[in-house]
Amino acid sequence: MSSKDAVSCAHSRWMESDGPESDVVVSSRVRVARNLTGIPFPHMLGPEKTKEVVNAVRLALNNEQFKAVAGESGLIHLSELSPVDRQILVDKHLISPDMLNDFQNKAVVMSQDETIVIMINEEDHLRMQCLLSGLQLTKAWEIINQVDDGLEQTIDFAFSEKLGYLTSCPTNVGTGLRASVMLHLPGLKLTRQLGGVLGATGKLGLTIRGLYGEGTEAVGDLFQISNQITLGQSEEEIIDNLISVSKQIMSQEQAARQVLYNNRREVIEDRVFRAYGILKHARILSSEEAMRLFSDLRLGLGLKAVTGIPAKLLNELMVKIRPAFMVKIAGREMSAYERDSFRAGLIRKELEI
User: Pairing between strand 159-160 and 116-120?
Assistant: First the structure.
């Protein structure tokens, strides 16, 4: 995959909305952190050692066991990309925002459908992730476990018999695994149950973050829930716990939506169709307002109050309306006002279906 291909379109496989329970669970992600034996953690590396890590990964990509899982995957140096293209990779949830800091010595490997991504020289030497549509944590873990095994054929990862995989941050030591789901929870918010549900979730060893992970806010009623514990539990136990909690939240969200629809049908339908009308006809839209309206429209799709709009289109629009992608489409920088105008026009065009 070339650097141009990596940012050529807004579509990634996770946006398809064809996974299980995708009316509530937008996506599932499993990520593992690994470090190379005998090389200091990334924050202690000089330029030559960072190149050594990149070259080790480049050689490992030719391993047949890795290729059997990830296919032909290209390695892209972030320094080869423009600032806009680097930001687009963040907006597509393919790399973390931290990858943009000191990007000169960082690289990324992606499968053709962008399901498998390997971040190189982020907080750890390697952060391998699998991102799928809907509630597919078990499948994502199986895929990333095969990727891990494939790379380990040629790369010696730092491992302790007592502690497990060694990581830059002590909170990742052990399995090095972080699993997360992105949930759309407008029903719980509208019925004022959201605070209680998220508070209870935090007591179960899980953490709640915003749309783009740690340090970001929830927008469009989208929340990321992930495990906090990586040591003392197996990967399967971590995954099973998150699946169990996700299903409970999903059930509560679906029940809240149904109560709203049964008791306040006209109010909910008015909310949904007002959102649809504004999105189809507005001339000025901020990203915050657009995300709120997408949430209302997504709620209407889940309740089947509105039909004919592919859910994957809303997932794609979440990326396309971000400033970086609009600059990519327009081919020029824009002021805040120009972006709001361009965003509205882009959404109108996309909703002509």
Answer: unpaired
